[in-house]
Amino acid sequence: MANHRSVATPLVGRRDELDLLLQYAGVTTDARDIVLLGGDAGIGKTRLLRELGLRAREAGHRVMAGHCLDLGDSAPPYQPFGDAFSGLGDDERDRLAERFPALGPLLPRPAAAPGPGVERAELFASVVAALDSLAEEQPVLLVIEDAHWADASTRHLIRYVMAQGFHRSVHVVVSYRSDDLHRKHPLRQPLTEWVRMPGVRRIELEPLADAEVADLVRVRADGILGPDELHAVVQRAGGNAFYVEELIDAGMADHASSLPETLSDLLLVRLDRLDEPTRRLVRAAAVTDGREGFAALAAAAGLSDVELDEALVTAVDHKVLRRSGSDDYAFRHALLGEALRDDLLPGERRRIHEAFLAALAPDAPPATVARHALAAGDRRTAFLATVEAARAAGRVAGHDEAAAHWEQALELLDAAPEGTDEIDLVIDAADALVTSGQLIRALDLLRDRLAQLPADRGRGCHGRLLVAIGNTSYYANLDAEAEQASADAARVVPDEPTALRGEVVALRARVLSGRQLDQEAITWGERALAIGEQIGSEQVISDAKATLTRLMVRTGDDPDRARATFHELVDSSRVSGHVLGELRGLNQLGFIHFNAGELDQAEWAFAEALRRAEETGWGKGPYGFDGRFFGAVVAYMRGHWDRVRELCEPQAGLPALLAANLAAVGLPVAAARGEVEQIERTLAMRSLWRHEEAASAHGSAGLIELYGVAGDLVAARRTYDDVIEVFVRAWDEPDFPGRIKLAALLLGQYAGAVESLERAGQHLLLAQVPALAADVERVVAATHPFGPEGEAWRRRAHAEIARLRWRCGVDAPDVDELTGAWRSTLEAFRGLDDPYETARSATRLAAVLMTTGAGAEAAALLHEARGVAERLRARPLLAEIELLRPRQDGSEVQLTPRELEVLHQVAAGRSNGEIGKHLFISTKTVSVHVSNILAKLEASGRTEAAAIARRRGLLDG
Question: What is the spatial distance between Cα 69 and Cα 147, in angstroms, rounded to a whole number?
Fold first, then answer.
């Protein structure tokens, strides 16, 4: 794509695909669509893109192309975008560097110096602005090839570019191998998100038809193949253009020839036709990332400049390599490079890397230097380059890549120069792991280093590690470990006005606040604020103010001032570039609004936290991921269930713990829609919920409901008990606020299922009521402040207890008491603007009203509830509503004498077995009569049938 040579081989087939591509990419129309071009390896994506590039240039477009490379963890962030901009002229690059300084990391030097680093949001915005500015002169076509190899940062930037509305004519095409996208491939989830974005078109290349393959064979073989040979190639190629070319070039155009067992063998056969210098060239090229330059390639291959030129000509003529720019090269197909790389002997591979390392230019990318040095056995150089690569990735918010580089640097620590501060390295590695969402891995790294630290090592070393452990365990909700680490750090670090002491004191305040030790937390928080102001540390000041403001909210003092303070913290942190402080402020704002029942404002705060986290590379880090998680919680309560599913979709590269947390918070939607198959699908994730309080609570809520829908009340109760045990064992917190909701949901499932149980089963459920009611009231007393959501679930729990007793006919409340309980519950959930729980409460109130003659009000409630249930696709609720259809007039109910006898026994509260013994009939016969009675009275259960019968005079006398 990057070269300007004409395409030698005519395009065979793909006419329809080319027409679509030209249309969507704005070459033949005014469309500004973004195109995703997929297809199997060798299917013809690159050839089609070359044709697109040729047609676009002919139409006056500027074509910019970048390639993702298969470099694993050593891939530099945003490499294909750097490739695309490197194809510009020097003057253009200099102008862009001047207009958009944040674009510097993507522009080859000397257009831009490394600089101190840029924020991800600024870099992303600069890329879009630069493309827009280039389009002032002519339309721009940006092509990103082989996105299946894209690193995490590049995938984020691709999505950002896709989401922008360019002011001028900028068109984007992204290609990828669809056959590479296995279930865990990092591109799979982003791809599902991209295709749903407005203006994104997807083109999938299917295998060529046999007639098209035959045409391609005739063109490639210059008509020298006979019918049998032609048929052999068509049959073997399977519609893959690359296979066609390989079969012809390898001389395998007949049925008698033996096809190699693997494609790798097939690819390597063609190298036998190359001369020795060209073989050396392509074998050396197999270990490169294409950015080392021709001088380094010549040295690695052991060729003079003249020999290199001749070998390149031969390699290009034999279609092994292709030129892609004035000083760049690439394999014609990546599969060939892969096969060659795997074919290298260990000694040969090492010698090639050594030669590359010696020949690299001084300004070579540090990740490239590190890769060659490590493979060459030069551990000292590899260490230095890896550290620089980690820092370079961090400067552009490539935290996933930075974490991998830092961990590799730690493995090379024995080769580090004398005087290297290993504690700094460990903390830098842990910070990158935390920001990329790998909190447990970060903790293991820090714990291990602390355990290995000699007792006589400086107190500052122990203190720095303890602070890092305290912060990381705090973010991981390991409260006991966080408290211990903060206490140890407070003892170890001298009580002097230093930055480290300020961090210790701020950590101590934050941890004590989390443990509800408010007075101690205030003392430490004020101390931290004083140290921060004395030494001028914005980070310590922000941390202390956030903790003190959180304590202000908890005590209920001046909530408006607390909100204003958090807004100030967010603004000041954003100005100073303190991302963690900004995200923490937004997170706390979200909870202030959430606990006050202000769901609109809570949704805004969590959404803003997520937006800023994604922009700054903190989407998996502390408070950033919380924006996604609690954004889903609020979206569920507001009835935005498709948004919940969107937020909770598995993301490529997401650590298992975070993926499990998203599955947990998405489970209530599955439960409300009756998707009982999710019970089994969550089995593998449940053990991870114990690391996160909110995940344990929300996941267990979903499971209780799912087990209830499935009719397994024992499993529902076991889920309730298990989550209580987890909260006690992991956090020493049996009376956590979410327990009220869990108890209410469990009681609701009991009340809904009781009619199907025999008397003994009903008594087992009723026996659990006193303890569950006590659980609720104990949590209410222990929760401060107790917000409107907690109050709504407290009312719901007591209403479900009343419903359970009423339907069992044991210590049943009168109708007025039952009606009052459900009216109160309905009012509470309406006040929360929670449509689903409002609809469920309305349905259960309607069930009571229908036994009192208030049919009109009941019908209105059911009509409202049905509308919500249909919109949310809440099947269990729809089924519950269906059982409450408008009743017939009593005069129309015709019961047989035996049915009236059975009805009197039902009204007396007897089970089917007891009725059978009393009337001298079988239990099975009683069951048939009861079913007939319920159908005729259109009652949902036995107690309701008795109430309807009394109201209509059927039980008189």
Answer: 9
